Amino acid sequence: MIGSLVLVGLLLGLAALLVGTDPPPAAVADYLRLQEARDRLPGSLSELASLADRDDGVGWQARVALGRWHLAHGAPALAVPILRSALALYPTSDLRADLARALEGAGRAAEARGEWEALLPHPDAVQAVLRLEGDPLRAAAALTKGGAPGEALTVLAAVGGTEAALERARALAALGRPKEALPEFERYLASIPGDRGVHLEYGRALERAGELDRALLAYRAAGAAGAYAAGLVLEAQGRAEEAIAAYRQSHEPEAKWRAGRLLEAQGRPRDAMDLYWELARGTSRVRDDAALRLYLLHRERGEATQAADAARLLSPALAWLAGVPAAPFATAADPLPSFPPAMALADALLSASPSGDGRQWAEVELAIAESRGSPADRLAIGEWHLRHGDWRAAFRVGSGVLPSVPSPRAYRLAYPLAWWDTVVHWAGEYGVDPYLVLAVIREESGFSPTAVSSSDARGLMQLLPSTARWIAEEKLTIPYREGDLFSPAVNIQLGTWYLGSLLRESGGDLAWAVAAYNGGPGNLRRWTAGGIASSADLPAHLRATETREYLGKVLTSWLTYRWLYGS
């Protein structure tokens, strides 16, 4: 044991020496040589081609420069294999666009279209799909799927026929115009009445248009695929027995969960428990919720053995809610230290060009090394990102290693103390556990200050601009600009105040506050209006699947932070 510790100490000392010394001059000199070769094109084509044979950052930069030069100078066929090899080494959206242009220039339209479709809904990609796809139906389908339904409608403006009606319906539905989509769906189904998948799409459009009775007919025509949606409509209408029957017809685990909840409400807990046991022993996202219901129901009936069996299936978060000891977090020994040369090179590149290309060069070197490295190499690279304050990159690396190597180093990367001084300051100011703030940041944005959701929530703690303005101007009486939501300091202050306000509103009920942060306090008040026996009953009352899952994720992150760094 002592010998192992000495070995680790020696290796760590060597790491410090390596990080603290200048790398070989040739490492940075290769990049200077690369820059010079790019500046001397076309006279340096052979030199760039030689550099492009390398499978490192220099090789990637050389491939990009060489491929783009050939593309710009009328040789797209030469550019294609070079750009494709660069994309395989380190992919970027700009590089994929270059490859698509080269393929198109080389007369390989079908391959070019595939690359452009991967870049939708970027305007250049939209124009390329319109240019390359001669079949308006296929073009419209690709545009709608790629997030450009408005352009799809334009393509279909003068196209008739059954298939065109279906693509128009899909584009209109994607644009949030369900009433206009309905006659197009109906035109298609009049010709092809047996298409169950389209019946399901039609039912969703009818439901969004407020035509619930017709939506039910469409969902039923979709068979088992529409049963879950039918059950939701029936349950909302108070038709519990019909809803249970619909849910039982569905193959969706969420439908079985809803059926169990309705059976409980009808005073049929044994029938509900049969469904819960099926779910708890499975692998779906509702298995933890089903295990919690089983534990509570068996405990209520004094069935200690069955309750204990259910408790063993609980996740740490739901075990905490239920007040039972959770299984310990999975842990493994840290791998022996590794010192990928890319780390020292990355530091040297940053020093050589702190305000120029150095940052991009370093990121490429590290990304390539990470993609090929062992878990020990990847942990070392993640820790490099941690030292340089790139919390999102450290989180990404740690989260990738953690499932296979749940070691303390992997946990610290996957659960970093990001913006810790700022978090601690505002958490203390507003009465919130700083680890809870970090848990919310982790699950909301993955530590990306520039994150923007589909609902326009922004920044680390994913605040809507309207909510952020209300907090800043009405509650904190501080200046507010919308762009400030991408500032970690501002976003953390506003988000922590909001989290603290929800804790105060709930009387300190952490689970209620977390669920309200996602689902909205108004919804939480409605969902729990009849009262709940304890926090352990809260997940069963959360009508939004997203909110129920969010509660479990944030609580798991919070408990992990407390376990990792001390409560």
From TrEMBL:
InterPro entries linked to this entry: Lysozyme-like_dom_sf, TPR-like_helical_dom_sf, Transglyc_AS, Transglycosylase_SLT_dom_1
GO-annotated cellular components: membrane
Name by which UniProt lists this protein: Putative Lytic transglycosylase, catalytic
Record GO biological process: peptidoglycan metabolic process
An annotated Gene Ontology molecular function: peptidoglycan lytic transglycosylase activity
Cited Pfam families: SLT, TPR_14
SUPFAM superfamilies hit by this protein: Lysozyme-like, TPR-like
Source species taxonomy: Bacteria, Candidatus Bipolaricaulota, Candidatus Bipolaricaulia, Candidatus Bipolaricaulales, Candidatus Bipolaricaulaceae
Family: Belongs to the transglycosylase Slt family.
Residues of the Transglycosylase SLT domain: 425-529
